[in-house]
Each structure stands twice: as structure tokens, then as C-alpha cells.
Design brief:
The protein is built from five helices and no strands. With 146 residues, it is mainly alpha-helical. The chain starts with a helix and ends with a helix. Helix 3 packs antiparallel against helix 4. It has one domain.
């Protein structure tokens, strides 16, 4: 595999992950009620929950959305500045930031999946984690070839 092909693969994966992060940020920051899989996990529709639970769930969703926003902004800045300039460390820094958000997200979705009938987006998290790990491996292998 050529260095140009590796760079293209890594760039696509980094952009996909960054865009997905912004999507999750928007979803959790602006949604007025919990997600459909939350309803399945809890076993009650949003309007049947007490106000105190709704406040707590919305607050947790906003924290999650804020984490995704911070993660995505960090990844975007690294993509636009050091990565574009060819700084090797950004090949590790970008996936490290993504993994810092994706691994806890994956673990949380697995908890929901194993303790309820809900189907949270654990597969998407697993795929993105795998892709980011691949970028780290490719970057290290390419660095050794250079």
C-alpha cells in the first residue's frame, strides 16, 4: 500500500468520525426528549415519565452532546491545521481524541443493550472505534516504512 493511499484512507476515516461526532452532538444537544431506544430501555414513553426524570435525562443528554461537540471540534481543528500540514503526531492525536469519546459511548450502549430490550447504536460506535484503531496501525506502519 502506498503512502498516498494510506493518507487517503486515514483522511476519509477521520472526516467520517468527525462528521458523525457533530451529528451526535446536534442530536443530543437539541433533541427535546429522549431517543426512541431510551423509551424501549425504560419501558415508558417520554410523556409518562415524571418531570424530575425528564430533567435528569435531558441534562445527561446535553452532557453527552457537549462531549461530542468538544470531541468533534478538537478533531476538526487537528484535521484542518496539523494534519493538513503533514504533522505525524496528528495521525495519532485525531484518533486518540475520537477514541476518548467513542470507547465510553460504546461501553454505555453495551450496558443499555445487555440490561434492556433496547437496541442502542452500539454497532456504529464499534465500527468507528475499529476504523480509528486501523488509522493508528496504518500510521505506525507507514512511519516505520518511511
Amino acid at each position: 500500500m502506498t503512502s498516498k493511499a494510506i493518507k487517503i484512507i486515514c483522511t476519509i476515516i477521520f472526516w467520517m468520525t468527525t462528521i458523525a461526532g457533530f451529528f451526535f452532538a446536534a442530536m443530543y444537544l437539541f433533541r427535546p426528549e429522549f431517543m426512541p431506544y431510551h423509551e424501549v430501555a425504560i419501558g415508558k414513553p417520554w410523556n409518562e415519565m415524571g418531570e424530575e426524570y425528564r430533567v435528569l435525562i435531558i441534562a445527561l443528554m446535553r452532557v453527552s452532546g457537549g462531549g461530542w461537540l468538544a470531541t468533534s471540534v478538537g478533531m476538526l481543528l487537528l484535521l484542518l491545521i496539523p494534519y493538513r500540514k503533514g504533522r505525524y503526531w496528528s495521525n495519532i492525536g485525531i484518533p486518540a481524541i475520537g477514541l476518548a469519546a467513542l470507547v465510553p459511548t460504546f461501553l454505555a450502549t453495551i450496558i443499555v443493550k445487555t440490561h434492556s430490550p433496547a437496541i442502542p447504536p452500539y454497532i456504529l460506535a464499534a465500527v468507528l472505534i475499529s476504523l480509528l484503531v486501523i488509522t493508528i496501525i496504518l500510521s505506525i506502519l507507514f512511519k516505520k516504512k518511511a
